[in-house]
């Protein structure tokens, strides 16, 4: 049974790049996923200020923004459909209309009917970040962050391990998603925080070995680096294709309070990262 992957396409204020679309299609092909692209078309809320009409044609500007968003959405859906056809994968598309502040709610709800969400990561886009945080903490499904450079493979997975619930959840999600993987490296950073089970990396590696993966434990220190940087650097150092980790954080009045590792990954994504909460 193929994996069902959701891919949100941002149209406003800045559109999802062609590189991100190509990366998502490549990821879907590598894991044998069916892709569902949803273009988020902006709805500009009405302005009730009585003076707005005298100062500037607000309605006209809103209509123009909505028309541009719709045009970008249609173009993105054509782009992803064409790329999926060329890659030989199944892809369905649709448009969803909402005010920008509700993009996260719309896509997090849609994600609950999929196995995973792909995100074409753009650290400079506040809309992409807000949508991604909603997916991570509200959808109940894992999120695969994709750099604009397309992934080469998902054969060797690195797992950030601290023995926590979210880390265990991430392992389960990774095993379901990366069914063709043959290697796994369990990374335990020893000096970032207290780890109750100091043998946990070996225990997890043994479990993964019983799952017919070539698995080993890998211990590391931050050496003055931020934890997000450390995990990604160590994953690349062992030759992993992607990093798997639990996402820490919670939402307070829709303002997300992120854990240090999660925040560090989002601030400087260096390779594909699967986040589970």
Automatic annotation (TrEMBL):
Pfam families: Usp. Residues 154-275 form the UspA domain. InterPro entries: Universal_stress_UspA (IPR006015), UspA (IPR006016). Belongs to the universal stress protein A family. This is Universal stress protein.
């Amino acid at each position: 049974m193929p994996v069902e992957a959701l891919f949100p396409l941002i149209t406003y204020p800045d559109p999802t790049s062609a590189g991100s679309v190509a990366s998502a299609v490549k990821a879907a092909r590598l894991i044998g996923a069916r892709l569902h692209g949803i273009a988020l078309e902006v709805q500009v809320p009405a302005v009730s200020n009585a003076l707005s009409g005298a100062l500037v044609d607000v309605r006209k500007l809103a209509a123009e923004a909505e028309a541009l968003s719709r045009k970008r959405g249609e173009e993105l859906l054509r782009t992803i459909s064409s790329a999926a056809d060329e890659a030989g994968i199944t892809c369905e598309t649709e448009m969803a209309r909402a005010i920008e502040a509700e993009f996260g709610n719309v896509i997090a709800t849609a994600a609950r009917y999929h196995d995973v969400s792909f995100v074409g990561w753009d650290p400079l886009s506040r809309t992409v970040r807000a949508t991604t945080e909603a997916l991570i903490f509200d959808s109940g499904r894992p999120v695969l962050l994709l750099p604009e450079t397309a992934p080469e493979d998902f054969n060797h997975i690195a797992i950030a391990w601290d023995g926590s619930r979210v880390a265990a959840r991430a392992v389960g999600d990774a095993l379901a998603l990366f069914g063709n993987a043959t290697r796994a490296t369990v990374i335990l950073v020893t000096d970032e925080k207290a780890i109750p089970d100091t043998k946990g990396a070996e225990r997890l590696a043994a479990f993964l070995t019983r799952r017919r993966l070539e698995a080993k434990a890998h211990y590391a220190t931050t050496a003055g680096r931020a934890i997000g940087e450390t995990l990604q650097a160590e994953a690349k150092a062992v030759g992993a294709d992607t990093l798997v980790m639990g996402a820490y954080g919670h939402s307070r009045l829709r303002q997300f309070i992120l854990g240090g590792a999660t925040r560090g990954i989002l601030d400087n994504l260096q390779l594909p990262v699967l986040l589970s909460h």
